[in-house]
Amino acid sequence: MSLHNYSQKFKEIETPFYYYDIDLLKATLTEAQKQLGKGPYQIHYAFKANFNRRILNEILQFGFGADCVSGNEVRKAIEVGFDPQHIVFAGVGKTDKEIKIGLQNDIFAFNVESIEELKVLNELAGALGKKARFALRINPNVDAGTHEYITTGTRDNKFGITVTELVAALPLIRSLAHTEFIGIHFHIGSQITDLSKFELLIEKCNQVQSLLVEQGFSLPHVNVGGGLGIDYENPKDHLMADFKGYFDRFKKDLHLYPGQRLHFELGRSLVAQCGSLISRVLYIKPAANTHFMILDAGMTELIRPALYRSFHYIENLTSIKERRIYDVVGPICETSDTFTKGMSLPITERGDIIAIRSTGAYGEVMASHYNLREVAPSIYSDDF
Ligand SMILES: *Cc1c(COP(=O)(O)O)cnc(C)c1O
Question: What is the pTM of this model?
Answer without folding.
Answer: 0.96
